[in-house]
Amino acid sequence: MHMLYDSDAFAVVHILANAPEDGEAQRLLGPQIPRHGFEIVDKRSGKEVYLDGSWAEMFQEQIQAWQQNTPSQEEVEDTLEGYASLAQMPVVMH
């Protein structure tokens, strides 16, 4: 887990896929597709959204664009606001 962004309004965490811990877990669960994603927490509303699959890929492209063209905090938060509008899950524990 890597904290990518933290402000008064938002937190963004990159959650990396973990390999099964041992051969027994692999045998019981069968082949698993490693998944990774991004958790965006809207601190103002107390809700979070988890992006995986194609949403995570799209967000990863946004991050790469930010790395090339350093945005202002306002530009970053405007983008996060769009994703936060998808948030339905209340933040229970962080």
Describe the structure.
It holds the Pfam family DUF3567. InterPro entries: DUF3567. It comes from Hydrogenophaga pseudoflava. With 94 residues, the protein is α+β, with helices and mostly antiparallel strands. The chain contains 3 helices and 5 strands; from the N terminus they run E-E-H-E-E-H-H-E. The protein has helices at residues 23-29, 53-68, 73-84; strands at 2-6, 10-15, 37-42, 47-52, 89-90. It has a 5-stranded antiparallel β-sheet. The two termini are 12 Å apart.
What is the structure about, briefly put?
This protein has one domain (2-90).
Give the number of domains.
1
Instruction: Give the overall average pLDDT.
Output: 83
Approximate shape: globular
Strand order of the largest sheet: 1-2-3-4-5
Question: What descriptive keywords fit this protein?
Answer:
alpha+beta; five-stranded antiparallel β-sheet; DUF3567; single chain; DUF3567 domain-containing protein; 94 residues
